UniProtKB/TrEMBL annotation:
Residue intervals of the STAS domain: 6-106
SUPFAM superfamilies reported for this sequence: SpoIIaa-like
Gene Ontology molecular function, alphabetical: anti-sigma factor antagonist activity
Pfam families: STAS (PF01740)
Gene3D superfamilies for this protein: STAS domain (3.30.750.24)
Full protein name: Anti-sigma factor antagonist
UniProt similarity note: Belongs to the anti-sigma-factor antagonist family.
Length: 106
């Protein structure tokens, strides 16, 4: 845990939204992240990309949110991808076994 304050940047382009969580995605940040993500995730027509380049830490709460997003997008048959996964986050995804479901892309 780095203690870096959490923030979410969103970039809207035609037909897609890029979401960039910055800092620590943990229990303290969960409510903010969920409220930002809910309308985006529920818009099945929009491509969703999570750019994790500035994510410094993620705990089980954050991972749970990512899994919820993955499930919802899968049910909607909507585009969802994860990009720029930091090495320390990728290791956690690998250890927990969720890498195969998140299919991060560089």
């Amino acid at each position: 845990m780095s203690g870096k304050k959490f923030a979410v940047k969103t970039i809207q382009q035609e037909g897609q939204v890029i979401v960039q969580p910055c800092g620590d995605l943990d229990l303290a940040a969960a409510k903010e992240f969920r409220s930002t993500m809910e309308p985006i995730v529920n818009d099945a027509k929009t491509e969703l990309t999570l750019d994790l380049n500035e994510l410094t830490y993620i705990d089980s709460t954050g991972i749970g949110i990512l899994i919820s997003i993955l499930k919802m997008r899968h049910e909607q048959k909507s585009a969802f991808r994860i990009t720029n996964v930091p090495t320390h986050v990728q290791k956690l995804f690998d250890m927990t076994g969720i890498s195969k479901f998140l299919t991060p892309q560089a």
